[in-house]
Amino acid sequence: MSISEVENYTPSPGLLTRLGMETELGLAACYQCKKCSAGCPLTFAMDLLPDRVIRLALLGQEEKLLSSRTIWVCSSCETCTTRCPNGIDIAGVMDWLKEEALRQGKSVPQPEVAAFHRFFLENVRDGGGRVGEAKLVRRFTLFKLRRRPDLGELIANLKLGAKLLKRGRLRLAGPRALKDRGQIEKIFEGSGLRRS
Amino acid sequence: MKVSYYPGCSLEGTALDYAASIAGVAPLAGLELLEIDDWNCCGASAAHSIDRVLALALPARNLALAAAAGLDVVVPCALCFNRLKAAEKALGVSKGEADGFKIWDLLDYFAQDRVLNALAEKVTRPLANLKAVGYYGCLVARPPAVTGKQDFENPQNLERLLATLGATALDWSYKTDCCGAGLTMPRPDLIDTLAARLYERALKAGAECFVVSCQMCQANLDLSQERISRKTGKNYYLPVFYFTEFIGLALGHPDVKKWLRGHLVDPLPLLAEKGLI
Predict the structure, then answer these.
(1) Is residue A40 located within the same domain as residue A96?
(2) What is the least distance, in Å, from the CA of B30 to any CA of chain A?
(3) Contact assessment for residue A26 and residue A89, using Cβ atoms and an 8 Å cutoff
(4) A173 is in which domain, residue-wise?
(5) Could you report the predicted ipTM of this complex, rounded to two decimals?
(6) How far A33 CA sits from the closest chain B CA (Å)?
(7) What tens digit of pLDDT does each residue of A167-190 get?
(8) Which of A150, A190, B100, B253 is deepest in the core (most CB within 10 A)?
């Protein structure tokens, strides 16, 4: 890691403590073997390799981590966590950083991914406990169109949707709300998901 | 044997074909599926990515319902299985079989010797000459600290099942590599890269099709195949079967064709060529 990668950022000395206090992620054990990055299937789309995420966390480079693309293109396949010889939950660190970035209201370099996660959870909450796929896809498609209209992609997706409908793999009506949807509402009230 | 069944949301939607094939072959394996009453979404990748409370509280409600039913739980979806296991571990609800109930990924249940032997006796149409790669994806096995799996790098369940059904399971190194999972909607371009890599590796191994146990893997490999073919200029033809559909085929279940109609990459030409339908 070169100095230029860290010099523009003020270290946040509390980051490691928070990562350690709030989770059992065990970052300090990292000896930079880079096995996590070697096995990661998504490095081609990342701006920081997974081993650097851990290193930067140890150095308190919070701003750099919270604004990175890496944490959002991680697919949570858990290969890094599985193979780490020191038992560091690297995929868990990625999750912690995503949540923290949103909590601090950071500008997310992958807004589609963050929005999809949020829409998914709101879909579960508002639908009474289960995901309604058609509604989720509709909402996400509108979001994408407003941000960056891509007519080709829209047409391709509509065609795909029509094929799925024809084959009985897409139900336009959402799932029925649970009998005990009150419990679901209570669970969501205790979460960090804000009503929008 | 009676077990609790947690289907998960996809099996009421884009994976209705998987759900139908499971309902079809469960009795052939001596399995009576009792759907957990009033189950809710496990939270999937969305919850553990952005909200640690939901990541545990949503699956925990399902664990409570399962505990009340008191039976082992089978879960066909890799993501749901993973989230239920993660909640189980975090909450210390169950410490495995000895303490109440066990959470099974459906394929593991089917791959028990006792079940395989029962299936072997009922094979009426061995899937001879059908060359397949077993594709497990990520989350039924990883991380082993959560899933409790021993053979997380080179699992053999699908290979054993395929051998039982008379099919040829080819060896390949990508059986537990990621298909992109929940990035399907927000980053389809990433799915294209990952799925194309899997097509290439499967073809290199000599495969004519995939056999999967996860509906997310099925969707990413099946629904994207036409788009990836267009993008890469290669005319991929690799049908993506659920392992339950393979069981149905080999055991002559009358509804197999109906299940397969849900696929975008039509498996019927391949099966016709092999004289299997």
Answers:
(1) yes
(2) 27
(3) yes
(4) 111-189
(5) 0.96
(6) 19
(7) 999 888 889 999 999 999 999 999
(8) B253
